[in-house]
Amino acid sequence: MTSIPAAASLVTDATQPAQSPLRLSWQRFKSNRFAMGASMVVVLFILMAIFAPWLAPHDPNETDLLRRLQVPVWMQGGEWSYPLGCDALGRDLLSRIIYGSRVSIFIGATVIFVATAIGVVAGLLAGYLRGWVDAVISRLVDILLAFPYLLFAIGLMATMGPGLQNIILALAYKEWVIPCRLVRGETMALREVEYVEAARAVGASSFYIMAREILPNILSSVIVVSTLRIAHVIILEASLSFLGIGVQPPTASWGSLVADGRAFIWDGWWVSTFSGFAILMLVLAINVSSQGLRDAFDPRLRD
Amino acid sequence: MQVSQPASATERQQPILSIRGLCTEFATPAGVLRAVQDLSLDVMPGECVGIVGESGSGKSVSFASVMGLIKPPGRVAAGEIVFAGMDLRKLSTQDMRAVRGKRMAMTMQDALTALNPSMTVEQQLLEVILAHDEDIVQSARWGKNAKAYKRAVEMLELVGIPSAAKRLRDYPHQFSGGMRQRIMIAIALACKPDLLIADEPTTALDVTIQAQVLELIGSLRRELGMSMVLITHDLSVVAEQCDRVVVMYAGQVVESGPTSEIIGQALHPYTRGLLAATPRVEDLAMPVRPIAGTVPSLINFPRQCHFYSRCQQRADACLSEIALSEPDVWRQVRCIRSEKERCA
Amino acid sequence: MSLAKFLERLLQLIPVMLGVSAIVFLMILITPGDPVDIMLGEQQATPEQREALRKDMGLDKPAAQRFGHFLRNAATGNFGHSYFHRRPVSEVILERLPATIELTLAALVIALMISIPLGVLAAVRKNSWVDRSATLGSLLGISMPGFWFGLLLMLVFGVWMQWLPISGRSDMASQVPVVTSFLTVDALLALNFKVFASALSHLALPAITLGLPMAAVLTRVTRTSMLEVLRQDYVTFAEAKGLSPRRVLFTHALRNALIPTVTMAALEVGSLLGGSMIVETIFGWPGLGRVVVESIFTRNYPMIQAAILLYALTYVLINFLADLLYTVLNPRVTL
């Protein structure tokens, strides 16, 4: 009574021409200006990472002690050639941030890629085959979920040692449970659906059913969740690098840049501030576009 | 054809509820949805008026408007609502709150969702009593109010809940569907209102329970001398309980009149269609004919007969705005065909 | 709910706790470096002495036996010796834990005090400026790296404006008798307001840094939940009863709307535990989290492993309590 009568929504749906759900989702996404803008920003960051060598004005590792803690361009003593100033070793901050995007984005994408691959397979197996496979996988998921994320990663890093490869492994070890749980739930729901029953009746193998019938239908949820998780992983990696147990010099992710700047935050506040700001910008853009994706796939969930 | 007329105007009582020209709209992204258009009806003291219509006919929205429960993006665009001599649309929100629950009460379709799952029956019953009944409130402000409690138990017993005092402490989900409906009725009647608006009281119930609840409502009405508006899509319910019927379609009143006349001699093609679609126990062999088509969208609907697309007797003349045939609310039809037939 | 069911559920925790311990133990097993070497450090020792030490520490037994040993020790609170502190690990933990708890609780309080009113207001006044800014704030809060936020706060309030101290817990701790080990509470109990003010001001920045991102998450949850509840039939029915808007909001709507918020808050405690490590490091807060981070660099494995085990088990327990709380708040659900 206080919400729009049901008849209205029924009929507005019927008046649209029949289109594939994918096209409809794309159209909905396009009409969401915030989401489109945010995804542009994400694309820009990715481009920045790819074309870093051409975009960065200086070599990120080139030290120049004469330029120790040089201020950004808008402050007195700044120069246009070093627009965001320099760090304690005279390295250009802008170039370091541009190159840092490579590390941060690479790690985030790789972790999610690996974790999603493992998680989807595990989830499909657990959800479809049930039985002892499900029992084992679910138990493992429960136990892993019992660890706070950062803590677990720190523990693993302490054990395995720092470094790029280890940080990807450490994060992936916990991250896979997220898509796994999601896929398991949806698979369990879908396996009772009629077209799956039909496929079973025709004698299709479990593998075929999982791959061709179930997987395409859970894909949209997996994509939405994975894009959101990339943002999470980027922040986690930055946190680990900030503490000093992530990537090691000379590799520098944004997190380690912030850590660098911490030592001289009084005199050179710009180092930590702008590096962290880059993280904020990218993560914000990812969150907004991911929200847009979710709304595009299922507009009924909107408030 | 005889249309029964009431006694002359001066001998008629004043209606407890009088609605004239009610229009309620909702603003949607696709346009303005006119959920209720030009609704006029009277409810006399002590009588039961049935409102019949399918989903989307505007029947629930009409009475939500009367209760003052329409919120943005909806609004009551026009019309006059007079209840017990008060112009409801001119009342302040505070005064309207004093009317709601106390003099005019409502029950909803599904008692499971209408009752708060986290509150006991006792709390939900007591709060309406304490909100309205001044002399009970005066007697004890703090602590357990014995009078209010006694009234709560009385109400539960009245609607036929066994071991009422004990069951007050229970939560809604611990009762069966039929009992929950009774509890909702008890809450609605707790302050002895003059008018009860029952929105689809039996739709969510099993057939056997339906009969019980209807009987309960009927006997309570007679016992308390209450007026009632019974909103339903089921003509058989109306036939049993209601003195008069108002048939709504797509936001408009298409026919209204005494129950016996509507059932026996429906004038509007839609009403006739509804009757034909209702199975009758006296003649089980008679085929049940559904009405073809669906309810049109009420967004930016052209000014023509709303039933046009589904009417077997449509003509070009139906493509203009059709008005109700009688200015008097006692017997109305919104159809040009009926005019001709009646004059014949 | 019955005691039997409660115990049954409690017992179900045991496999998970065992699994958690197993994983921590696994971490111990695959840790590089010989524990004996690390313990001895620079000291000279003959191979026989090393062998004796190894036997003494039980390092020559098979893994399964060592796991049993590990569990037995853990149950009695014996986590070994901290390489760095030259004291039993359990002693270090007990010493540092209260500071972390104080910080975490303060952050939780801040988060709830902000998110609940804000979330409710945003839902009730949907699409108003309050709603829009709350949504924007939430978005920023969850996108922001916590450590960066802490540094910014430190910069703005500690360095530029010099309103609040940026390091440590308080230099006046010794002036107040230790009752609860929570400095703020102890200062209040001793009615020493000067120390209380000092303790509070030191607690402020770390607690805000830890609490605000959590507030961002909870605001969103509260708002969504409240919007959902306001759509429900029982809210309409409550209004139809002629109840005052305050009663409808607080007694009917809020009671149901807060359930997801509270359960989410319990789940988020995990990220509070993790975040406390960062916040304690930035602000020099003398808690367990800082010890863990330091232990990584000093290769103080017993310390790290004990802390992880403790945190993980605490988290499991908190989740269990959250489930309990959920059944209490939602009468329809039984344990």
Please characterize this protein's 3D structure.
The complex is a heterotrimer of chains A (303), B (344) and C (335). Chain A is mainly α and 303 residues long. Chain A has helices at residues 6-14, 21-31, 33-50, 52-55, 93-129, 131-145, 149-160, 164-175, 177-190, 194-202, 206-243, 254-262, 269-297. Residues 6-16 of chain A have low confidence and may be disordered. Chain B has 344 residues and is α/β, with parallel strands linked by helices. In chain B, the strands form two sheets. In chain B, strands 6-7-8-3-9-10-11 form a seven-stranded mixed beta sheet, with helices on both faces. In chain B, strands 2-1-4-5 form a four-stranded antiparallel beta sheet. Chain B is globular and about 65 Å long. With 335 residues, chain C is mainly alpha-helical. Chain C is globular and about 85 Å long. The mean pLDDT of chain C is 83. Chains in contact: A-B, A-C, B-C. The interface between B and C is medium-sized, with 27 and 21 residues.
Overall mean confidence score, pLDDT of chain C:
83
The protein's oligomeric status is heterotrimer
- The pLDDT mean of chain A sits at 83
Number of separate domains of chain A: 1
The SS-based structural class of chain A is mainly alpha
Assess the beta-strand content of chain C as a share of residues: under 5%
